[in-house]
Amino acid sequence: MPGVFQLSVDERLDGEVGRLEQLGIPAIILFGLPAAKDEIGSENFAPDGIVQQALRRLRGRHPDLLLITDVCCCEYTSHGHCGVVRNGAVDNDATLEILGRVAVSHADAGADIVAPSGMMDGMVTAIRTALDAAGFQNCSVLSYAVKYASAFYGPFREAADSAPAFGDRRQYQMDPANVREAVLEAGLDEAEGADFLMVKPALAYLDVIRAVRERTRLPLVAYNVSGEYAMLKAAAQRGWIDERRAVLEALTGMRRAGADAIITYHAADVAGWLKESESAS
Fold first, then answer.
1. pLDDT at 161 over 70
2. 3 in a structural domain
3. Count of domains in the chain?
4. pLDDT more than 70, % of the chain
5. Which of 109, 114, 98, 1 is nearest to 51 (CA)?
6. Domain-embedded: residue 5
7. Which residues does the annotation mark as catalytic?
8. How confident is the model at residue 24 (pLDDT cuts 50, 70, 90)?
9. 1, part of any domain
10. In terms of CB atoms within 10 Å, which end of the chain has fewer, N or C?
């Protein structure tokens, strides 16, 4: 994707994070690309895993930055699914123990917020229980409570080499036609102790953001995903749209629908545009 790069845990990471801080961006979310993959995604919860290394480096050098981590298995497993696979299907309950181990390892390395994205039933309870038992009561849980089986994840899956080796993720991700399930899933995760809720993707699901917003008082996050970003970037590169106006309009729509925060690949561009506007005024 234009303007989006994989970063090694060294000066490149420090330089990019320093740039984001200078732009006024207060938080980042980390996704890891492991050196090796296996059936259960062992590097996901290894003390020296790639995300754990990044957390320790950033925590020491950028103490005021809010560090969020994605907690899932798909980038780390050899089969590309979001959990333990048994008999050709994801075993929900066997996956929960692994998610708890991942969350604890991230909190121990310096994460402020862990964000489970695998859509496993009971994942918030499992993670909250594991964090509390390990003494990380202050580590918050941002649940990907509403995550659809979407075509808009394509660029990320290619970049992270996380596409499923067989089948798809409709066993555990949601049907794009179903909004009632979104409200149900959000309510379940809130009852399990989530501190924040998320709707993913965002642009094609503004009605879902609104439906969830009307039923919860928890902070609500919209995830403006890779395919949504890539569409606007590609159209702008061809001269078909005004990128700045289109991006700001799209993100404003997410806020208007009820999102309190937005995770987006446009963040650095938007922060730069806002700074320019402040300077001009």
1. no
2. no
3. 1
4. 92
5. 109
6. no
7. 147, 200
8. very high
9. no
10. C
